[in-house]
Amino acid sequence: MDGLVACVGAVVHDPDGRLLVVQRAHDPDRGAWSVPGGRVEAGEDDATAVVREVREETGLHVRAGAVAGRVLVPAARPRYAVVDLVCTLVDPAATPVAGDDAAAAAFVDRATLEGLRCTPGLLSALGGWGLLPRC
Q1: What is the total count of domains within the chain?
Q2: Burial 99-117 (b: 16+ CB within 10 A, else e)
Q3: Running DSSP on this structure, what letter comes out for residue 112?
Q4: Domain containing 119: what range?
Q5: Which residues are in the Nudix hydrolase domain (predicted)?
C-alpha cells in the first residue's frame, strides 16, 4: 500500500440489528457519522487494530470477524486504505460511550442512519455489502 495509510473500520450490530456509529470529533469529516475505526498501528494486524479502535472510541469490547469490504479514500490527504471488519459484541447489553476521536457514539436503526450526515460513501458501501442496520 505504497503512499497509503492502513486503516480499519468496525461494522457492529446490536442484538436488535442496529448499527454502531460514531460522530467524528476530528477531520477528515469532523461532525460526520461513520463506523468506528482508525489507523492500524505498527505491529498490529487488522483484527487487533479494530478491537482497539472500537474500545477507544466507544468503550465496547468486540471480537473481530470476517472482512466486510475495502474502501480507498483517495480525496483525503494522506490517502486511507480502509479494511472494514464485521465484529460481534462481547457484551450484547453494553452501551456505547464516546471516547478518544468520537464526539458521540450510538446504535442506530436504518431510518436514523439515513437521516444523519455520514462520511462519504458509507451508506453505499454498507448497502453493497448487505450490512445496513437490519431494522
Answers
A1: 1
A2: ebbbeebbbbebebbeebe
A3: H
A4: 4-128
A5: 3-131
- In-domain check, residue 100: yes
Note the pLDDT tens digit of each residue in 64-110: 999 999 998 866 667 889 999 999 999 999 999 999 889 999 999 99
pLDDT in tens, 4-32: 899 999 999 999 999 999 999 988 789 99
Q: What is the CATH number of the domain that holds 85?
A: 3.90.79.10
The reply to whether 133 falls in a domain is no
pLDDT value for 15? 96
What one-character-per-residue DSSP string does 3-69 give?
Answer: TEEEEEEEEEB-TTSPEEEEEESSSSSTT-EE-SEEEPPTT--HHHHHHHHHHHHH---EEEEEEEE
User: Grid cell 483525503 — which residue?
Assistant: 76
Residue 134 covered by a domain: no
